[in-house]
Specification:
Blueprint (H helix, E strand, L loop, with lengths): L1 H17 L7 E15 L24 E10 L4 E9 L5 E10 L5 E15 L3 H6 L3 E2 L8 E18 L3 E14 L3 E8 L5 E9 L3 E17 L2 E16 L2 E8 L5 E6 L4 E15 L1
Antiparallel strand pairs: 1-2, 1-15, 2-3, 3-4, 4-5, 5-7, 6-9, 7-8, 8-11, 9-10, 10-13, 11-12, 12-15, 13-14
């Protein structure tokens, strides 16, 4: 949540500072409602648990709907900044991004962005129920669900076009992203015996390369008190090959007999895609 609080603080500070600031040439506030789809291919169970086999997937059904508050701050014809604070149905400000753009040419520029958003890992303990015969594979009766936070940065070219009514922005960034550390334990016991085992998983942060195309379309509808009001439509995607590496420590009977293994599962094809629309206010 510290990551989200930083974005909330920055968005508030820039918004308040820009109200009367002469440094900011143009300001824009956007409120959108959107939906996210998530795809990740799945592999058959092997000798080791693969966490990405249990990442939450949603084919644009609406379970990953979100709202976003976006602040755009144009400092000059060549430099601008945008801050995005997004929330899913839990209304926690966890879907965030910040980007800086520089336009040495009228329509062509370059940018760098930082982003973060959560994903869920669900029921990964099913691997042990299927693989560990003769054991109560997980003594914890609760539903196994963990939120992992993706964060990273990307950079690349930006294209823009605008006239009195229409504005179009397109970017195609390439970047690296990481996943928060997941640290969990699974307690097991023999079905007809006293034998006990603990399996401890701790993921290893490792960067994954990703491609991020995004397009924004804005249409000005009318003006009230020197404020242009219009609609905004946005579409974006994140394509990557990713894996979650981890260290597995297995304790048989006692903590002194630990077996430590470094595991690197195969890479999965992953796709995150988004579509949102809303209102924009520019002054």
């Amino acid at each position: 949540m510290k990551f989200s609080r930083v974005f909330l603080f920055l968005l508030f500070c820039f918004s308040m500072q820009s109200v009367k600031s002469q440094i900011v040439k143009e300001k824009q506030f956007v409120f959108t409602v959107g939906n996210q789809g998530a795809y990740c291919d799945s592999f058959p169970d092997g000798a080791n648990l693969d966490f990405l086999n249990y990442v939450y997937r949603d084919k644009f059904t609406g379970n990953l709907a979100y709202i976003s508050f976006v602040g755009y701050f144009k400092f000059s014809d060549t430099l601008d900044l945008s801050l995005t604070l997004g929330m899913y149905s839990d209304l926690a400000p966890t879907k965030n991004s910040i980007s800086f753009r520089y336009f040495p040419f009228k329509m062509l520029g370059f940018g760098i962005g930082f982003m973060g958003y959560p994903q869920y890992i669900n029921e990964y303990n099913l691997y042990h129920w299927n693989a560990d015969e003769g054991l109560y594979a997980d003594l914890d009766p609760n539903y196994r669900q963990h939120k992992m936070f993706n964060y990273g940065f990307a950079l690349g070219p930006d294209l823009r076009y605008s006239n009195s009514r229409l504005s179009v922005d397109f970017r195609a960034y390439v970047g690296l992203r990481w996943v928060d550390i997941l640290d969990v334990e699974i307690y097991q016991k023999a079905v007809n015996g006293n034998y006990r085992r603990v399996v401890h998983y701790r993921t290893t942060p490792s960067p994954n390369l990703y491609l991020y195309p995004e397009i924004n379309l804005g249409v000005r509808l009318f003006t009230i008190s020197k404020t242009d009001i219009g609609i905004r439509i946005r579409s974006a995607a994140e394509l990557s090959k990713r894996a979650i590496n981890y260290t597995r420590t297995t304790y048989d009977w006692t903590a002194e007999d630990a077996i430590v293994s470094k595991v690197k599962p195969g890479s999965h094809s992953s796709l995150i895609y988004e579509l949102d629309f809303g209102l924009q206010f520019q002054w």
